[in-house]
Amino acid sequence: MEKKEARLRRARLTRARIKNAGVVRLTVHKTPRHIYAQLITPVDSKVLASASTLDKTFKTELGYGGNVKAASLVGKAIAERARSVGVTRVAFDRSGFKYHGRVKALAEAARENGLTF
């Protein structure tokens, strides 16, 4: 459990810094088979928009949700949904995961489609 505890510790530190900034946060969570993204308000922690590889729109495009291609599609979707809600500036909360692979692909796809962080 040391690996998970270290990730959760990193996540707590990041969330504390983001909370002080008072910005909408883009939270990412990943499992070996799927990746999830949410936009969460800073004050009352309400979810403004979400996207994941479990969405029915991705089921036809993706055969497997645990790869970089799937993560980039989720990043594109969350950026479009953020624009529809009226959010353009976010803080990136990677939930303690390393900025590499699927997390990086999601972040870059979100940036390319209009989110700034």
What is shown here, in short?
The chain is 47% helix and 18% strand. The chain has 4 helices and 4 strands, in the order H-E-E-E-H-H-E-H. It starts with a helix and ends in a 5-residue tail after the last helix.
Question: Keywords, please?
Answer:
117 residues; alpha+beta; Nucleotidyltransferase, domain 5; 4-stranded mixed beta sheet; 4 strands; globular
Topology:
Elements: H1 2-21, E1 25-30, E2 35-40, E3 47-52, H2 56-61, H3 68-85, E4 91-93, H4 102-112
Helix pairs in contact: 3-4
Describe the structure.
The chain is α+β, with helices and mostly antiparallel strands and 117 residues long. It has one domain (2-112): Nucleotidyltransferase, domain 5 (2-Layer Sandwich). It has four helices and four strands. The chain has helices at 2-21, 56-61, 68-85, 102-112, and strands at 25-30, 35-40, 47-52, 91-93. A four-stranded mixed β-sheet has the order 3-2-1-4. A hairpin with a 6-residue loop joins β2 (35-40) and β3 (47-52). α3 packs parallel to α4. The N and C termini lie far apart (31 Å). The mean pLDDT is 94.
